[in-house]
């Protein structure tokens, strides 16, 4: 096949945190990459906040953003309905709190999967724990749609820890490595299987053919992305790092989103420096999408109902003392689930692929 039959579309990616183009069943994908400075001992930056639009700081001044945070970077309490958020953290830490009462601090290599379903409120704050050196943060947040029959499912909080997420390393004829890290699904029958997704997720459907994976290629490595299981599967491959890479015979020299044929294998040939890529694939849900801000339903009437329900119920209320809770300077990686069960993890390893 020629590259024009394998590579359906290429779209240049804007600077972080500009949202990336997505295809059904995915709604949204953003790459946050912030060069946060050392902390001030109160989990905020040891740096002047002058010149920033506090509460709406997305300008990337000095290479980082406060986002909607006022002193600590992040996203204070906000609602969702009708879809899922999948947060893949490559570097740094996130403090999670939600209206279910669940809480977590998770970091490099961990994945949080939150089914909003009929409605949830959560906060995602970025505590700057280290006071002796910088606190860089890198993550992907991905919004995965729910089919109509699952949009009003019970909310569900899931943590997938770094040591539970499988890596598969492939070597080309010259021994150069390509490592695929599977947050969801697998590529080919021989690939390792990650932990199960939440029960109401589209990813839990047996024929969804859904994959969320990061790919790290050594310089000059060659690897063939295998064909998806179904002819109807859609694929987007994002080149996360700048540099040259060959995809289906096409020479790529900028950060792009590549829509690929799902039912065909595609050869990737890296250039002269390490390359990071993100793969999102899945069978389309194929239903109408009505979206307004944090709500994604199938009709405008359902969107209006979501606003009415949130104003009336607060999706269960907010059991935290403020809208931007963080978990203290001494807390390590942990999760406290809705049923009271707690998990603790040691310090994360070096940034995974």
UniProtKB/TrEMBL annotation:
Transmembrane segments: none annotated. PANTHER family: PIRIN (PTHR13903:SF8), PIRIN-RELATED (PTHR13903). It comes from the Bacteria. InterPro entries: Pirin, Pirin_C_dom, Pirin_N_dom, RmlC-like_jellyroll, RmlC_Cupin_sf. Residues 69-144 form the Pirin N-terminal domain. Pfam families: Pirin, Pirin_C. This is Pirin. Residues 215-316 form the Pirin C-terminal domain. Belongs to the pirin family. It comes from Sphaerotilus hippei.
